[in-house]
Amino acid sequence: MYGLCNMECSKNCLNESCSINGECDLGCATNFYGKKCNIPCPETCNEVVTGPLCLQENGICKNGLRYGTTSDIFRPGMYSLICPSC
User: Fold this and answer.
1) pTM score, two decimals?
2) Phi and psi at residue 15, to the nearest 5°
3) Are 2 and 18 in contact (CB under 8 A)?
4) Is the dihedral angle over the CA atoms 40, 73, 68, 45 positive or is it negative?
5) Per residue in 34-74, pLDDT tens?
6) CB of 36 within 8 A of CB of 19?
7) Mapping DSSP to helix (H, G, I), strand (E, B) and coil, where does residue 58 land?
């Protein structure tokens, strides 16, 4: 809950804790990202041993993309495993 209005935070906010504008202040639940933790990590992310599949700030896959897949989210210098001209 946040503010005095008893409005609910996203269920994807850790401890369902957020600021008055609805942004999660303690971070996101596993495999969600964005200020309000309302965006799921891309389904094309490689599995990770522990923790979330993607970075909370921008949704970039922590362990790269699964072979043969693509994503709209790339960090500078990241390459696609299926890029024919890389």
Assistant:
1) 0.72
2) 55, 20
3) yes
4) negative
5) 999 999 999 889 999 888 999 999 999 998 888 777 666 65
6) no
7) coil
Q: Is 42 helix (H, G, I), strand (E, B) or coil?
A: coil
Strand 39-40 to strand 32-33: parallel, antiparallel, or no bridges (unpaired)? antiparallel
Residue partners of 86: CB distance under 8 A and separation at least 6:
79, 80
**To 5 degrees, how large is the angle CA 78–CA 80–CA 83?**
130
Q: How far is CA 20 from CA 25, 29, 32, 82, in A?
A: 10, 19, 20, 43
Residue entry with tokens 């299926």: 82
Longest dimension (CA), the chain: 55
The answer to whether 65 and 44 are in contact (CB under 8 A) is yes
Compute the distance between CA of residue 82 and CA of residue 80 in angstroms, rounded to an integer: 5
Structure tokens at 62: 């922590």
